[in-house]
Amino acid sequence: MKKNVIIIGLMALLTGGHLHAQHLYFQKDKLNEIDIKLKEYVLITNKIYDEHPSYLVSTYTFRSLIQKDFSKITIGENSFSKVGRFAAASVNADESKFYFTPFTFVQTKDPLKGPFRKIHAIDLSGDVSSEGVFNFKEWKSLKAGYSLTFILGGYTPKRDERDTGFHRKIVQETYDVTYAKYKKAQTSLSSYLSIADKVQSNDIDKLKKAAKEDFFKTLEEYELNYYDDKWKSKRISWVKFNITPISWDNFSFIDPTDAATFSKLEQKKAYTGSAKASFNQLHTFPNKKNMQIYFAGYIGLSRKHSLSEISTPIQYYNLKRLTDSTVTVVEDKQVYSLKQQDFKFGIRPDLGAQFIFIFNAFDDFNLGFDLASSFNGLVSSDGGAYVNKSTLGILFPFTDKDGESTVNLEIFYQRKTFSKIELENNGLWGVKFGLPFSKL
């Protein structure tokens, strides 16, 4: 009998110890505090939703949705309005340009801290030899600048798709799932380990923060899953400011009045800093096979020189005499012809606009049309000279298996028309490539 009492006592002690150990992860009073905060989030979310009849999803989900949709934008003029991190190239008979945005910084990236509004970026670009985009031995220009983007968004839900009662059920389900997760983590080691990456101690503030993140991310998952096809249209607008303080043009030329330049080309480097501002807007219609309409307008000022925007070089041959009657070509390249005294600088305005229409041609194949026109000021003896560039392109936006944009390919025709300057109008064909290599 005494032996049985001892065994029962030991079992009770072990059981009690086990039950006590179950509560070592965090105490009940901390779970109660988490519960109070979760119920506050339920009340706040429902209150904001009720006070804004135009809301289809919660504020947190909408902020996150704007950021996700914005980071997927891959269309737009590379030089002044494109967003995110990307690499692009444009090649035609006159010029081969590349664009590269390796660094971006998003202010208020966390939807819990506020709306998604500003993006800072470092932009690199250049104009190299028409013989090849990456032939840097004959580079014509190199630019490094900074851009600041302000984002606006306005999404329109389908009529009668908003169900306040059902939305409350979604919020309640979010609360139930989140609370159950932390209640189980209080006594279950495996459940606690599932949130250990967020909570490394019994610090109640860290526990509350982790619970808040879980609540709103769960809510976002439920809302986007249910409301994904219930948007009538999505409109994202942004204003972008580009400043390019590091900008140099480099070119070779001969001076018709200086015979020495015919045997040894003159080299000139010219500073060409610039600043631009653009307004851009993208409309997406999910209920119409993701049809997209994009348009933009921009205005800018640039420090230019007599050869800016003018691609009319001549073929240069540097000859070396072998005998009295024979010569050989030592050097063969495209150069410019101008008199040293005629080379001038000036601040000139640029303005332009672009319109792109993309639609689902058939099955999963998308097709687009790109129409753009710009008026760029020129430095000339006659003030007010400019070149009008009008471009019409066919855009092929390729996507991956998830429907995300991968590579944009565009074949285009560009017509240049000069005004108040003695240059011939011309037309040319070209191709553009665009590759987004990282989300914001």
Key features?
elongated; twelve-stranded antiparallel barrel; alpha+beta
Can you tell me about this structure?
The protein has helices at residues 2-21, 28-51, 59-71, 164-187, 189-193, 204-227; strands at residues 85-92, 96-107, 118-128, 141-157, 231-254, 266-271, 274-285, 291-305, 314-321, 327-337, 345-362, 365-377, 386-399, 405-419, 426-438. With 440 residues, it is α+β, with helices and mostly antiparallel strands. Strands 1-2-3-4-5-7-8-11-12-13-14-15 form a 12-stranded antiparallel barrel. The chain is elongated, with a radius of gyration of 32 Å.
Q: Summarize model confidence as the mean pLDDT.
A: 80
**Percent helix:** 25-40%
Kindly state the number of beta strands. Answer: 15
CATH architectural grouping of the largest domain? Beta Barrel
Structural category is: alpha+beta
Explain briefly what this protein structure is.
The protein has 440 residues and is α+β, with helices and mostly antiparallel strands. The protein has six helices and 15 strands. It has two domains: 116 residues, no CATH class; 279 residues, Porin (Beta Barrel).
